[in-house]
Amino acid sequence: MDVGYYGADRNERLVRERIQASWMDAYSPARHLDAVLVVAAMLLSSIGIAMIYSATYHRLELAGLPPASLANKQAVALGIALAAMIATAVFDYRYVRAYAPLLYTGAIFFLLVVLTPFGKAVHGSQSWIDLGGFQLQPSEFAKVALVAALAALLHERKAEPDLTAILAAVGLVAVPTGLILLQPDFGTALVFPWIAFIILLVVGTRARYLVGLLVTAALGVALVLKAGVLADYQIARLTSFLDVGNSELARTTLYNTNQSMIAVGSGGFAGRGFLKGTQTNLSYVPENHNDFIFTVVGEEFGFLGAAVVLGLFAIILWRGLRITALAKDTFGRLAAAGAVAVLSIQMFVNVGMTIGITPVTGIPLPFVSYGGTSLISSFLLVGLLLNVHMRRF
Fold first, then answer.
1. What are the residues whose beta carbons fall under 8 Å from the beta carbon of 40, sequence distance 6 or more?
2. How far, in Å, are 108, 119, 123, 197, 279 from residue 176 at the CA level?
3. Residue-wise pLDDT tens digits, 260-318
4. Quick check: 23 and 367 in contact, CB under 8 A?
5. Which ranges of the chain does DSSP label H, i.e. alpha helix?
6. Cα–Cα distance between 192 and 177 in angstroms, integer?
7. Where are the domains of the chain?
């Protein structure tokens, strides 16, 4: 046996394996994971679970139910959301581009199902599908589908979008927006035109077209209000915010907003302490585990706690904008911009209605508010951002 020959062959194989391992390490997408983005999202979700427990444990105990039942459900949803984020990040986002029409069609299908007897009404809006122990809100997933569809529609444009492309984008937005208004869910419906506006802005649409879209959107809102599409309580939310309503519903909405502001203000600099919020425990603020969860943060942890939550959101939006700028192609840039658009408007509107600077619309606070579908949708957007970032080379 020629030992030298086999020794040389072995050495050559080892060198080849090392080169291959080095190449895989250098170009592996996971090597470029944006850990800061993931940690910020997980911290917000962990804070959310704690706030959900604080907001619900007292009344659940009074009802003879396990005090941590809703917090535990949110923890399970977080596990599912993390799995969804990983799945979205693992596969090259070119697959998202390829299947964007299918995702969009599926979203529209489920929005139609919601309007049938299979849909379930919660708080006056038929926005849910009951799947046994789990309630699905298709409009949350429709946000993700619209981001993918708009990015896929506009990514191949070598120059600024022409009128045909803009009208096609408007059509993509109009269908889910109209279906959501029929539920009716005015707050969620407002998110969809915002997604389109930001994506069209990033792709380089002319200013006159963007102004035209804003005017059209304003006229659309006025038409919706005049057409009687919205429920009385939804109109009352807007009129009470504008201080033009004197109905009982308007006064109730204004009362809820005032209680929310009292809760946030009573927290002072450092807050009353975990589980010690009187506005929270005595249920003065409605839906304080969901739409008004920021009041729990403000009351129990004060200015410091609110600053931490807003700081984590600022980190997420900063990383999202950075990923948008670093994307290697137009689809990645538009998809990342769309993800940032969804998270930013929901954060701004939710916190704004808590402190009285925006009308009450029922939009949840991403990562923090109670709701499995909203949480999964938010982490799908994080997964999309991670995907674009990991494949930016």
1. 312, 315, 316, 319
2. 6, 16, 20, 15, 37
3. 888 888 888 988 988 888 887 777 787 788 888 999 999 999 999 999 999 999 999 99
4. no
5. 3-27, 35-62, 69-90, 93-98, 100-114, 138-154, 163-181, 186-203, 207-227, 232-241, 248-266, 278-281, 293-326, 330-354, 372-390
6. 6
7. 42-390
Q: Which residue has the tokens 């396990």?
A: 66
d(CA 69, CA 286): 19
> Tokens in use for 187?
């707050």
Helix (H, G, I), strand (E, B) or coil at 130: strand
Length of the chain (residues):
393
Residue type, 22: S
Instruction: State the number of CA atoms in the 13 A half-sphere of 248 facing the CB.
Output: 0
Instruction: For residue 129, give the H/E element and its range.
Output: strand 125-131
CB 222 within 8 A of CB 242: no
Q: How many CB atoms lie within 10 A of CB 242?
A: 10
Q: Which of 389, 388, 353, 348 is nearest to 366 (CA)?
A: 348
CA-closest candidate to residue 316, choices 343, 345, 285, 349? 343
pTM for the whole structure: 0.88
Beta carbons of 349 and 358 less than 8 angstroms apart: yes
Q: Which residue has the tokens 């506006």?
A: 197
- Cα–Cα distance between 393 and 27 in angstroms, integer? 8
Cα separation, 132 vs 141, in Å, equals 19
Widest pairwise Cα distance in the chain: 100
The confidence score (pLDDT) of residue 210 equals: 92
- CA 220/CA 178 separation, integer angstroms: 11
